[in-house]
Amino acid sequence: MRFDEAYSGKVFIMSRENFDEASAVIYGMPMDWTVSFRPGSRFGPGRIREASIGLEEYSPYMDKHLEEVSYFDAGDIPLPFGNAERSLAMIEEYIGKLLDFGKFPLGLGGEHLVTWPVVKAMHRKHPDMAFIHIDAHADLRLEYEGEVLSHSTPVRKICELIGPENVYSFGIRSGMREEFEFAKGSGMHMSKFHVAEPLRKMLPSLSGRKVYVTIDIDVLDPAFAPGTGTAEAGGISSSELVEAIQLISDSDVQVVGADLVEVAPVYDPSEQTVIAASKFVREMLLGWVK
């Protein structure tokens, strides 16, 4: 994919026309090749962009306007349908090039497995980084039905790459017993059920560190985000997730990249999920891109 020309499709609201002058790059990872319940997250990036047109450019949470942040929407990575291994390799290569250009990568998913190759590329650039994971699911399996490339495995792979002591999961309310036992015994941090309050307590321990943040939309209760592949009852509200994004923004951590994944628009004819997702992306841009 070329970075020297604007994406010809719909772009996130107020995307700049010049890649070279942008601090951040929005890109899509339209992959749902390994989902175990309901497919459709490959359509998430495009629908988030479309929903962003209805946003106000000003955020009262951050007291900032999108004109204050320079970002370029590069469109979606053209991933080969059904080929998970090749798709992951393409994502890793793509992020490596973005980092070579000095850009802040902000990804739109796609299933959660897409975070794995992003973190591999980020880790080469920032070997001492920490990983903040906001999700309903632990994603700590070694494999799912014999398949190691699965949306159930990315956080386990990341633990093995950067060390479990550098992984911080919030909002977790679903997973195998073995996943929770691994979290407890490995040294990683896992906060169950809630996000904002445990994050508030944990962030001071990450002061001054570089962090990558991944947000799975299913951390929200299905009442707030029914448009996702593996909805889990008992989740947080949209307002709590906005608060979490702001807490990270107000902290002393340095966010070096982020993604928002698992938006599956087909399961939400009301469009509240993509509307919420686009707002979260706005807050991530305003709060985390320096």
What fraction of residues sit in β-strands? 15-25%
> Can you tell me the overall shape?
globular
Number of strands: 10
Report the mean per-residue pLDDT as an integer: 95
Structural class: alpha/beta
Contiguous low-pLDDT stretches (5 residues minimum) are none
Rg over alpha carbons: 17 Å
How many distinct folded domains? 1
Order the strands across the largest sheet as they lie in space. Answer: 4-1-5-10-9-6-7-8
Family: Belongs to the arginase family. Agmatinase subfamily.
Enzyme class: hydrolase
Protein name: Agmatinase
Binding site for Mn(2+): 112, 135, 137, 139, 216, 218
In short:
It catalyses: agmatine + H2O = urea + putrescine. With 290 residues, the chain is of the alpha/beta class.
What would the keywords be for this entry?
8-stranded parallel sheet; metal ion binding; globular; hydrolase; 8 helices; 10 strands; alpha/beta; 18% strand; single chain; Ureohydrolase_dom_sf; EC 3.5.3.11; two-stranded antiparallel ribbon; 290 residues; 32% helix; manganese; Arginase, Chain A
